[in-house]
Write a structure and sequence with these properties.
- By secondary structure, the protein is mostly helical.
- It has one domain.
- Helix 1 packs across helix 2.
- It is globular.
Length: 110
């Protein structure tokens, strides 16, 4: 299920009209890595993996809207950051990738 969410995010990014191609490519690369990390987390904590994927989807959707709403984007990104809180030790790559996506989406929404 988390993989389906990642696929939906990828489709959303590919279709986003307000993103330059270079940013799309960078985000898609990060999502590919995130997909691997979420798959790994799913083996031990599927519910949390789905939660992280859901917050990433929400954040990407808000950042790629034609007219982004900064407050909604901020809330979505805060949720994404919280969703990986505590995984820095057990899944450091997951935390790093998610934080990179947070920064990138924050910058898009500005």
């Amino acid at each position: 299920m988390a993989q389906d969410t990642i696929r939906a995010i990828e489709d959303n990014i590919k279709e986003a009209e307000n993103l330059p191609e270079a940013k799309k490519a960078e985000l898609l690369k990060l999502l590919s890595t995130l997909e691997d990390e979420i798959a790994e987390l799913s083996k031990s904590d599927a519910e949390h993996a789905r939660s992280i994927a859901g917050f990433v989807e929400l954040s990407a959707r808000e950042a790629t809207r034609r007219k982004p709403k900064p407050e909604l984007l901020k809330l979505a990104i805060e949720g994404m950051e919280e969703s990986v809180d505590g995984f820095e030790v057990s899944h450091p790559r997951l935390a790093h990738i998610t934080n990179s996506i947070c920064v990138m989406l924050s910058n898009i929404g500005i």
